[in-house]
Automatic annotation (TrEMBL):
InterPro entries (alphabetical): Fatty_acid_hydroxylase, Sterol_desaturase/TMEM195
Subcellular location as annotated: Endomembrane system
Protein name: Sterol desaturase family protein
Domain Fatty acid hydroxylase: 145-294
Transmembrane intervals: 15-35, 70-89, 110-128, 191-209
Membrane topology: Multi-pass membrane protein
Entry annotated with the keyword Transmembrane: yes
Organism annotation: Xanthocytophaga flava
Length: 364
């Protein structure tokens, strides 16, 4: 499938809107200091130890630091155990799926910190030698929103383009191959997709520039949201069931990714009006899908997940394609696989149903 003119036009338009969204927190800071007359950049804090959260958040600092270091891994493992005890994988965790899930969980945790650390400590001082802690004067909430927007909007685009550009799809395919949803899906990615994840380096750059403390809070909050959105535990259902919680649900499902909206993205079909692998790209914020009209909200869960023509390819092919190819006949990860673009998980807006093409947000 080639990139048609209408899709290219939509991507271009949305990219221009994104530039405004990236700049919005920065302009808010400029307006604030123009209004107050303060000029904190004239005496920036160069000592990272002096940078901290507002007083009312100080008690959370140890929690966030521990979550960042080992707590999120502990939560993920605990959540995985809970999912298995509840039988939510429905005996679909075959040896092949088990291998790919474990490898995708462990290898990035071991290698990526080294890669980003090298980028932050070795390359950035060479590229930006006098820029370390340049923006340490930025107040906590200002830095928090700058990073939250820069981090998550960048990931939204990285994710969206891997669905909309045929060449990129196979690098993201592993994330959609499993016929189940669960904690493991949060990290189930092709290694090349993960290594070239520009959001990782963007965040590392912002930390180098003096926004590390705010990045800590954003990273932990985002990790908790994305982990819970991939989980097979439907924590959002009570918000839809009880009428008194409906106003909260309306805001929540448009602001962040919930299990219902993100499970729809992992469905193996879009024909039932619930599944929507052609959209719902948001990671921490579903708000991007609302703004760019790439999402639907149904408050329902798909009945099946994955890819219809999944060949249960070898773990090494899913994790390291195209370095290693699959030996499964007919697989798009094999040496003689289908042409790029034959995949129905790629977005072709000319074939969408009218109600999905306009990405109408609905509630059931």
């Amino acid at each position: 499938m080639s990139l048609d003119h209408s899709l290219a036009k939509k991507i271009t338009r949305d990219a221009l809107i994104s530039l405004c969204l990236y700049a919005l927190p920065v302009f808010a800071l400029i307006f604030y200091y123009a209004f107050t007359g303060e000029r904190p950049w004239e005496n920036p804090v160069k000592d990272y130890a002096q940078v901290s959260a507002p007083a009312f958040l100080k008690f959370l600092e140890p929690v966030f630091r521990n979550l960042k270091s080992w707590g999120l891994i502990a939560i993920a493992l605990g959540l995985g155990v809970l999912e298995f005890v509840a039988g939510l994988y429905d005996n679909k965790w075959t040896p092949t799926e088990r291998k790919i899930d474990i490898v995708c969980f462990l290898v990035p945790k071991l290698l990526l910190p080294s890669i980003t650390g090298f980028f932050s400590l070795k390359l950035l001082p060479l590229v930006l030698p006098d820029a370390a802690n340049t923006f340490s004067w930025v107040p906590f909430w200002g830095g928090f929103f700058v990073i939250a927007v820069a981090d998550d909007l960048t990931q939204y685009w990285y994710h969206r383009l891997h669905h909309q550009l045929p060449f990129l799809w196979r690098f993201h395919r592993t994330h959609h191959s499993a016929p189940y949803m669960g904690m493991a899906m949060n990290s189930r990615q092709n290694f090349i997709y993960t290594v070239f994840f520009s959001q990782i380096y963007l965040t590392a750059t912002l930390v180098y520039l003096g926004l590390g403390y705010q990045a800590l809070f954003v990273t932990v909050l985002k990790s908790l949201i994305t982990l819970s959105a991939h989980s097979s535990i439907p924590w959002d259902k009570p918000f839809y069931k009880y009428r008194i919680l409906h106003p909260v649900a309306w805001v929540l499902e448009r602001l962040i990714s919930t299990p219902a909206t993100h499970h729809a993205h992992h469905a193996d079909t879009a024909d039932d009006g619930v599944g929507y692998y052609k959209g719902n790209f948001g990671n921490m914020f579903f708000l991007w899908d609302v703004i760019f009209k790439t999402g639907i909200i149904t408050r329902q869960y798909p009945t099946s997940y994955g890819i219809k023509f999944y060949k249960e390819e070898e773990w090494y092919a899913q994790f390291l394609w195209p370095i290693f190819k699959s030996k499964k006949e007919g697989s798009e990860l094999s040496a003689n696989g289908p042409e790029v673009g034959d995949d129905p998980a790629l977005v072709d807006e000319t074939q969408l149903k009218p109600e999905l093409a306009t990405a109408k947000l609905t509630t059931a």
